Structures are given as structure tokens and as C-alpha cells.
Amino acid sequence: YGAAPNTLTDAVVLGLPGTLPVLNHFAIEQCAKLGRMLGCEIAAVCKWDRKNYFYPDSPKNYQLTQNEEPLCIGGKVEIELPGPSRNVEGDHLWVQLNRIHLEEDPGKLTHEAFDTVIDFNRAGVPLAEIVTEPDMSSSTEAVAFLNCLRNMIIYAGISDCDMEKGQMRCDANVSIRPVGSDKLGTRTEMKNLNSMSNVKASIEYEISRQTDILEEGGKITQETRRWDVDKAISFSLRSKEEAHDYRYFPDPDLMPVRMDRARVAELEAELPERPLDKQRRYQEELGLPFTITSVLCQDRELSEFFEAALETHNAPKAIANYITNDLLRELSAVSDHGESAHSVSQSKLTPAHIATLVKIIDEGVISKQIGKEVFTDMFATGDMPDAIVEKKGLKQSNDTGEIEALCREAIAGNAKAVGQYKDGNEKALNALKGPVMKATKGKANPAMLDQLLKQLIDAG
């Protein structure tokens, strides 16, 4: 991605005379891993076919693919639909897969005002095509599926799935049916969908277009349509009558591949826990709420950072809160300023930093309020939190005599707050805590302060 056009080609992808294709064994193994991540059965034997057509993006006039015997069969993906708000978990839906097959990517055509230009840089690159069953009934479900799919693939380390770079692309087949009917109508295929927003917009446009045609008594033409991003409309590329007869036949140059079951098992063992499975585990075993688990499990690196911190200090809720709130906020602020650190691995913090900070708060060495100050210093310098506490003299004060004296001053100076507290307003106590915290520079033990204030007011 980003290289000058036609600078990453060779004789094989250009189909020059005398060249023969070569199997990419790494791609086969990655596709098998993808299949197992998505619950597919891995075929004992997969074969290669030629898909014959004449088009400028295919200099050989055929594409190597798997028509009859694909590598991955079946499978299913659990997706999480958007909830009524960001803080509420949505419904879950299973999308069945038909197959995953390997094929070679063709060149890239770019349609300009008066010309169409072609770049063969990506030609011959292995491409895994995931074919779903018609289980999605809205643009929202389609986008949710793609987001869950992308997250699973990134988790497995198979691809970065950057749609802008063409690492993940989507074609959408759209058909509508009357309410209550099980029979799908004539479908159209939408192409040129290179972002989630384009997927959503194109599906909604096509549903509206087909509905208008049927309501006016017309018929849907089975066709391939191209999405125009700038105009937010689609236009016909070719109808079924104009569709290619691809004349598939076995490729004579590539032998069938027999999958070694032991190797497939090894590849499966390398796979991480699926994101939604991890999210459920965090909720059930660690007692974390959806608002926290949904953030932690969006990013494998973030969830692994969290689990590594737990190994140092087992306080899941406090550690998760620091990661999903304070750490991500600081990382976002760094990114907004255009600096380099925008992920956990690029920051100066390690899991031990977060775990140690939570530990010294739990042990009463510092208060939660001071913990926020320590975190800011820790993020900026990379120093351990206990070292920052020692250096800046931030240890929590447990001096009962000092705190009691300050409490008496606060009570004497704010009769209104004392009266409100005696009338049952617990929040009025905060007005008395403020002066004490200010006098101790935030180092007074909050629990001790709360207890002493209540005792002194009740005694008075």
C-alpha cells in the first residue's frame, strides 16, 4: 500500500509467457487459522480452479480461485448489535458462513474523469473470500457483522483489516421480501464498498431503490451495481444477462493441497480467545460491567495489558477503570496533539505501573485523589508510582490528632453544612471535607476523615 503504481509486480502476476504459479504455503495456513477462528471445518483436501474472464485487471485472462473444493467449509460468527445506548449491551445474532476460499487478488482499476488506469501492485496477493448465508436483515446487522469479523481477524493476528488500505473489502448482496414471506426476492450485488459507512449507506440506498420499484409495479433486475461514494447513489455495471460465463476448470499447474490434521491442530492452538467469549468471561468471572468489558475487549493488546496487570495485583475493577478511563484518555490526548504514542505498547506504562498504583491505593499508602495525580506523572515520566509518591511526599496522612484538629476547625467554620448534615443531607459532609483535604494537600485518609467528622458532629 502506498507504493508507486506497478512497482511491485513480477513476471508471474503479469502472466508473461513461460511463467508458472507458486503456492503460498503461509497464506494457506493463515486461511486455515481464519477458518478455525470462525468455526469452519477445514477440508481434508482443497483444490484450485481457473476462473476465466477477460478484463483489464487480469493480465492472464483468468483468476486462480477455489470453486469446487474450498479450504474452509461452513462456520458461524456471533455478532453483537448496537444497544439502545453506548452503555447498554445490544442483542446477539449468529451469522452462518457458507465457505472461505483462497484466490489471487486482481489488479486495481481506478476510474478517472476520462480514463481508467490500472495498478498491478496487489495482483497475485492471496485473498481469503468469506461467503455468508443470508442471515442479516438490515444495514445495521451487516455493519455489526463486519465490525465483529474485523475484530476477530485482528485478534488472531491474521490481518490488520484496514479498509482504507484495501486489506478488507466487502461486496453486499441485497434483496427484499414482503413482510411475513420466507422467499427472498431478486438480489443485486453492490461493489466498491471500502468503508463501514459506505456499506451502510449503499445497503440502505438499495433497499429504498428496490422498494420503490416494487411499489410502482416494476421488477428487480439481477445485476451488479457500483456504489458512487461522492454522489451517494449506485449505478448498474452489468445485468445477469451480461454476466460472465466463467467456465471454471481445474488449474493444471497447481496440485491439490492435502491438509495435515496435526498441523491444523497446531494452528488452532495458536488462536486467542474470541473477543465476545473474553467479554463474557470478564463479566461472569471478574464481575466487570458491559461498559468496561466492551472497551477492554475491542483491542487484544488492551485486554492482554489488563490481564498482565491482574497477575501483579488482583483488583480487576480498579485496574480496568484506570485502563479504560485514565490510560485511554491520556493516549487519546497524546494522539490529538500529533505525538507518537497512541497505543498501549507505545506508551511508557507497563501493566506493573497500573497494578502497583492500584495496590498502594488499596493499602492506604495514598488516596484515590492522589492516585490521579500520581497517574498523570507516571504516564508522562514512566516512573513507578511508589517512587513518585516517595519523591513528592504524597503518602496518605493517618495522623488522627492532626486530622481531628482540622475537622474541629471545619465544623466550627461551617455551621450551615453541619445543620444540613444533621437534617439528613449526607452530601453536606463534603463541604466539611474540602477544607481538611486542602490543608493536608489531599493526603488525609478519606475513610478516617469521614469517620471523624461524623463522630464529632454527633458528639456535638
Question: What layout of secondary structure does this protein have?
Answer:
Elements: H1 25-37, E1 41-42, E2 45-46, E3 49-52, E4 62-65, E5 72-73, E6 76-80, E7 92-104, E8 108-111, E9 116-119, E10 126-132, H2 139-155, E11 170-174, E12 188-193, H3 196-215, E13 223-228, E14 233-239, E15 249-250, E16 257-258, H4 261-269, H5 275-286, H6 290-296, H7 300-312, H8 316-336, H9 351-362, H10 368-381, H11 385-392, H12 400-412, H13 415-422, H14 429-439, H15 446-459
Parallel strand pairs: 12-13
Antiparallel strand pairs: 1-5, 2-16, 3-4, 3-15, 5-7, 6-7, 7-10, 8-9, 11-12, 13-14
Descriptive notes:
The chain is an alpha+beta fold and 460 residues long. It folds into three domains: 25-267, no CATH class; 273-392, no CATH class; 400-459, Arc Repressor Mutant, subunit A. 42% of the residues lie in helices and 16% in strands. It contains 15 helices and 16 strands. The strands form five sheets. Strands 1, 5, 6, 7 and 10 form a five-stranded antiparallel beta sheet that branches. Strands 11-12-13-14 form a four-stranded mixed beta sheet, with helices on one face. A three-stranded antiparallel beta sheet has the order 4-3-15, with no helix packed on it. A hairpin with a 4-residue loop joins strand 13 (223-228) and strand 14 (233-239). The longest helix has 21 residues, at 316-336. The chain is elongated and about 95 Å long. It starts with 24 loop residues before the first helix and ends with a helix.
